[in-house]
Design goal:
alpha/beta, 9 helices, binds flavin-adenine dinucleotide
Length: about 500
């Protein structure tokens, strides 16, 4: 099959979906190529057994870690990418995240643009993603040019009471910025199956709902599903991409276009560039710096389940509150991290961690526990990298950096939870397979010898190639990444030659 378009975007997650929307709104003829299909709306969307235990929406694919051990990565090959199951927590990064910042374990590098450069696009992305939030509660929040599009989600009584107990301990519980459709007449019913689950109602602000479908409605976008792009081919000079070549049900697919955007997610985008090595780009496409695949980050993350035998937790939509007080200073003048409520964990979901515990015991624990994500910045290292083995299989090598700050944040969080009344605190540290916040594999920067992309995500080495997904992040910050990916996609289309 041969197809042509003005612009081809590869991957329909947050980066690709938002890029396609912005390009289509400018009248370009855009082809969005996605290896997966649309995720079906079906009863299993909301089944913990189907989603978590049977991994219904994850691919069978395995990757290798640095020691050659197989693992099942946290990726989702469907229209909308990982946003189909994400928790829709959509905070902005802080001003300091764009500046060089000293951490316990080293330097978090500066970005090639500042918070002020991204601010208008944060506002536009929040509007597109129906973000609900409020200001004035979080001492670390960045300045903003206008209010949130919609007021913050209200806490349910258990969470409101928890916020009071936390406040009495001297911290500043703040409303999470959430992307759900609670507009007047909106579709969200505040169910307990949002974070980690696909939305059966289409009420979550995922990239399919808020970017791909509105882009199709412009009439300028064609969506090609079930086609995996395996390599990009360049012209004889190596300066321009001429074709994206992949495979679908009917065999080889060859797409020619004037401009190419890779948005396959941080690991797959790096892998695609490495697979596209040719005579002019022997180490991989756009890789004269040798940085493609390096600086792989995914946050230092852990879950906490805090149990109070005296207090029943009957919350349905739990993910409405964060404590960010230690973001800039974790206790020694260096950045710490955040703690953020996650979707209410059900007993059946604990099976993975406690396979031999009887169900009634898990249900009893879940009825009196509250669950948090504790997240700290993962520093970039050239040794943490994505490579391909001899058969072309993805290998991710990673030794976490920034662990000292994460341990300290965990200790502080656990002490705080004990003080507000929880007797038992269980923790689960994320391993290499829990890579939902992956980023940093094709970093943006000003110096072509030390970065792959410029500040507008265009490859330094290839004039008609952009990479717009979590891969461009020079540092990981300690905030959820999706809103920053969306904002940068809008900025690139508005300010670079991509839409020219
Ligand atoms: C359970 C979970 C909870 C999360 N919660 C949050 C949250 O609350 N807040 C937040 O900010 N972030 C959250 N995230 C992370 C967020 O979903 C990601 O940061 C975001 O989706 C990354 O966008 P992306 O464009 O980089 O990649 P993706 O969204 O992963 O999109 C990549 C797309 O490219 C496609 N693709 C890959 N390779 C190819 C190929 N070769 N050819 C064609 N198509 C290809 C994939 O199928 C996919 O659709 C969560 C993630 C998970 C898994």
């Amino acid at each position: 099959m041969n197809i042509t378009a003005d612009c081809v975007v590869i991957g329909s997650g947050m980066g690709g979906g938002m890029t396609a929307l912005a390009l289509a709104r400018r009248g370009l003829d855009v082809l969005l190529v996605e290896r997966g299909e649309r995720l079906r709306r079906e009863p299993q969307n909301w089944s913990p057994e189907a989603v978590f235990l049977k991994r219904r929406y994850k691919p069978a694919e395995t990757w290798l870690d640095g020691r050659g051990r197989e693992y099942k990565p946290g990726v989702h090959y469907v229209v909308g990418g990982s946003t189909k199951v994400y928790g829709a927590s959509l905070p902005r990064f802080r001003e300091s995240d764009f500046e060089a910042t000293e951490h316990d374990d080293g330097l978090s590098p500066a970005w090639p643009f500042r918070y002020a450069d991204l601010e208008p696009y944060y506002a536009a992305a929040e509007a597109q993603l129906n973000v609900h939030g409020t200001t004035g509660q979080d001492p670390t929040e960045p300045w903003r040019s206008g209010p949130y599009p919609f007021p913050a989600m209200e806490h349910e009584p258990y969470v409101a009471d928890l916020a009071e107990r936390l406040r009495a301990q001297g911290v500043s519980p703040a409303a999470n910025a959430m992307g759900v459709d609670l507009r007047p007449g909106g579709l969200c019913i505040r169910c307990g199956t949002c974070d980690g689950f696909p939305c059966l109602l289409g009420a979550k602000s995922d990239a399919e709902t808020c970017a791909v479908d509105p882009a199709l409605a412009t009439g300028n976008l064609r969506l090609l599903t079930g086609v995996r792009i395996d390599r990009l081919e360049t012209d004889p000079s190596g300066a321009r991409v001429v074709a994206a070549v992949g495979v679908g049900d009917e065999g080889e697919v060859r797409i020619t276009a004037a401009k190419f955007v890779v948005s396959a997610g941080a690991v797959n985008s790096a892998a695609l560039l490495l697979r596209s090595a040719d005579g002019k780009h022997p180490a991989g496409l756009a890789n004269s710096s040798g940085r493609v695949g390096r600086n792989y980050m995914m946050h230092n993350n852990a879950h906490i389940a805090a149990f109070d035998a005296t207090r029943r937790n009957d919350v349905v939509f739990q993910k409405t509150l964060s404590v960010n007080d230690w973001y800039h200073d974790g206790g020694d003048g260096k950045p710490g991290g955040v703690m953020q409520l996650v979707g209410k964990v059900q007993g059946s979901m604990m099976r993975l961690e406690a396979p031999y515990a009887p169900r009634f015991a898990l249900d009893g624990f879940a009825a009196r526990s509250v669950e948090w994500l504790v997240m700290s910045e993962d520093l970039p290292s050239p040794d943490n990298r994505v490579t391909l083995d001899a058969s072309g299989r993805i290998v991710t090598q990673r030794t976490a950096l920034g662990v000292a700050a994460h341990r300290r944040t965990m200790r502080t969080a656990k002490r705080l939870l004990h003080r507000v009344g929880y007797q038992i605190i269980g923790t689960q540290w994320f391993g290499i397979e829990m890579n939902s916040h992956m980023c940093g594999t094709v970093v943006a920067g000003e110096d072509p010898s030390r970065s792959v992309l410029d500040g507008h995500c265009r490859a330094h080495d290839v004039e008609n190639l952009w990479v717009i997904d979590g891969g461009f992040f020079p540092s990981s910050a300690a905030m959820n990444p999706a809103l920053t990916i969306a904002a940068q996609a809008l900025r690139v289309v508005a300010e670079s030659d991509l839409a020219a």
